[in-house]
Write a structure and sequence with these properties.
84 residues; alpha+beta; AbrB/MazE/SpoVT family DNA-binding domain-containing protein; SpoVT-AbrB_sf
Length: 84
């Protein structure tokens, strides 16, 4: 089991073997929770719906093009997701 040290700014560095085992990369987010007096960290993986919404907002023209190529109304589908 690896150990980490808390810096003066309350930061920790994850050991390389932990990062590699979980496939973590710089900039990724971790969920942090306290369970039974222990700190639990786990990768935050956004829901597909959330990713689709963000992609539509960032790349509306590309989303529409994908819909035309696949003959699937991706834009309409994502708009429905936005509403509820």
């Amino acid at each position: 089991m690896a150990t980490v040290t808390i810096s003066p700014k309350y930061q920790i560095t994850l050991p390389a073997e932990v990062r590699q085992a979980l496939g973590l990369h710089p900039g990724e987010k971790l969920l942090v929770e306290v369970v039974g007096g222990e700190i639990r960290l786990r990768p935050w993986r956004p829901l597909v719906r959330q990713l689709l919404r963000e992609l539509l907002q960032a790349y509306p023209e590309e989303a529409e093009a994908v819909g035309k190529i696949t003959r699937h109304d991706a834009v309409g589908y994502i708009r429905k997701l936005r509403k509820g």
